[in-house]
Amino acid sequence: MIRPHDALPFRHVLTLPAMGSAVRIARETTEQVLAEWGVGPREPCLGPALLILSELVANSVRHAAVLSPNVTVVFAGGPDAFAFGVHDRHPYRPALYTSAVAGSGRGLATVVELTLELGGSAVVRGDADQGGKSIWVTLPLQRAGAPLQR
């Protein structure tokens, strides 16, 4: 499995207060970061990636803000993949694929469904101290072979 923070050469980190405006700011930042990396608005995964990111940030704001005053989004990119991790300091780690099958947590079910439809992967990684987690989504870019621009 690709570990986005190890395998993809481009990075950007965004830390925001865990409040409603975090979703909008994270979406806008994602669009800016991808444009800077040479990923244009015609990229097929762009719209779904923004929806997935919005859902994950909204979940952190909605469910983790009591224990996690900030939410951090880490972006990683390369010539054929785009990945992002949404991190908070709430210890609960959702079972992504169980949510999709069981029908609980419609937002996470949507995240998993869209990710798999795009040929991507999603994983939950706990912090070393078990006090928080990141949900990482890796999506393939259709423009494989085209170098990302700086």
Strand content: 25-35%
Strand order across the biggest sheet? Answer: 1-2-3-5-4
**What form results from the Cα inertia axes?**
globular
Contiguous runs where pLDDT drops below 50 for at least 5 residues: none
Main sheet record: 5 strands, antiparallel
Oligomeric state of shown chains: single chain
So how many helices? 5
Computed Rg = 14 Å
Give the helix level as a range of percent.
25-40%
N-end to C-end Cα span: 26 Å
Q: Helix-strand pattern, N to C? A: HEHHEEHHEE
> What's the pLDDT, averaged over the residues?
88
Number of strands: 5
Structural class: alpha+beta
Word description of this protein:
The chain is an alpha+beta fold and 150 residues long. Helix content is 39%, strand content 25%. It has five helices and five strands; from the N terminus they run H-E-H-H-E-E-H-H-E-E. Helix 2 (21-36) packs antiparallel against helix 3, helix 3 runs antiparallel to helix 5 and helix 4 (96-102) packs across helix 5.
